[in-house]
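## retry 2 of 3
previous attempt timed out at serialization; input unchanged, resubmitting
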Amino acid sequence: MKQTKIYLILVAMLGIVLLSSCEEEEPDQAPTVANPIEDVTVEENADNTVIDLAGVFTDEDNDDATITKAVESNTNEALVVASVSGNTLTLDYQTDQTGTATITIRATSNGQTVDDVFEVTVTEGEDAPPTVANPIPDVGAKVFDLSLIHISE
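## retry succeeded, writing output
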């Protein structure tokens, strides 16, 4: 952000007042984490989790809308695949996997960066009861009329 400083220079002997201005550049400030992403816990085979990143990062000397976000690291892609598109973070849980992953989201503004780190935990859920893949069709059977005959001695 530019700051304008105005200097008033008096030259007493000549009775002249000179007004001078000078713009000085302040160093660009890095973005900061305004609202950290909370840790996520789901059961295995859960639907994707979608997180809005619009309010997570801020930059005091640049427009927050210009901050870019990206997945910097994921410690367990076999458990969850993390992807960012614009301001949307999607966590795609892999089938029949449990465990934890640490995910780092990096925000960049004017070449300066900041990271937000959170944990994803996928717990074991109840598996659905087994189903019959190929049921055996009903088979018709003939019923025989059996009668008992008593023979007396």
